[in-house]
Design a protein that fits this description.
With about 240 residues, the chain is an alpha/beta fold. It contains four helices and nine strands, in the order H-E-E-H-E-E-E-E-H-E-E-E-H. The chain is flat and about 65 Å long.
């Protein structure tokens, strides 16, 4: 039995029904817990001697609003370029005020993912917790368990709008205080919502609605080979080569 499978079995034995999923894949263990159990599970992950996850390596937010959807999926190549990419079918090309395409509602949208390390037991673990409310995504903070979570949770709040209940100083860390929206959300436009410039008449920096027109720049490579010849031409060329 692999070391990862042993860890997975031990987690199932300790937490039982608190685990919504417990998966071993490519030598890694990923567990998923409900928001109401998240803090208690993390505390036991640190304090249980057989687990001993004393280090939080990373913590980040995830937006699953387009999970499993693909704009570019195709089963064959095209000789006319990716012109279908000009059709707006994803959040990235939307402007402020545009209608948001219908999203996949089969699962909760926002999740917080923590990566843990046990130096003593040489174990690694991924813990995922989904926020119950999409309009106000909120999960418990783990700053009191791992102090390093402080800036990680602030970053997830800033970029995804995930609120960490119990965080001592939850405020933006990468964008400025007047920033509109959360830039890592899938429905955030690539050009943003506002732009700033210096106004010489007012002698100060002002914010305005963004004036950038969205464009789709898809490189097209044209190769001069037999893939673009008509069938009869391709046959004649093949016969001549023979």
């Amino acid at each position: 039995m692999s070391k990862a499978q042993q860890l997975s079995d031990r987690l199932a034995q300790i937490f039982g029904g608190q685990l919504q999923s417990n998966i071993v894949d490519v030598g890694e263990v990923t567990i998923e817990v409900a928001a109401q159990d998240y803090h208690d599970v993390c505390l036991k992950l640190r304090d249980d001697e057989s687990l001993g996850f004393e280090m939080l390596i990373d913590l980040c937010g995830v937006d699953y609003s387009e999970y499993g959807q693909a704009e570019w999926t195709t089963e064959k190549s095209s000789s006319t370029g990716f012109s279908r990419g000009v059709e707006v079918a994803s959040h990235g090309y939307l402007r402020f005020g545009d209608d948001i395409p219908e999203k996949n509602t089969s699962r909760s949208r926002f999740a917080s993912v923590a990566h843990l390390l046990s130096v003593k037991n040489n174990h690694r673990l991924r813990v995922r917790v989904f926020a119950d409310d999409e309009a106000m995504p909120m999960v418990p903070s783990v700053v009191d368990i791992w102090r390093v979570a402080d800036w990680f949770e602030r970053e997830a709040f800033d970029l995804f709008g995930i609120h960490y209940e119990g965080h001592p100083d939850l405020r933006r860390i990468l964008t400025d205080y007047g920033f509109v929206g959360h830039p890592f959300r899938k429905d955030f436009p690539l050009s943003g919502n506002v732009e700033m410039r210096f106004d010489p008449e007012q002698n100060r920096v002002i914010y305005e609605p963004v004036s950038i027109e969205p464009r789709v720049l898809v490189p097209r490579v044209i190769r001069e080979d037999n893939r673009y010849l008509e069938p009869e031409e391709n046959t004649e060329e093949g016969a001549a080569d023979a």
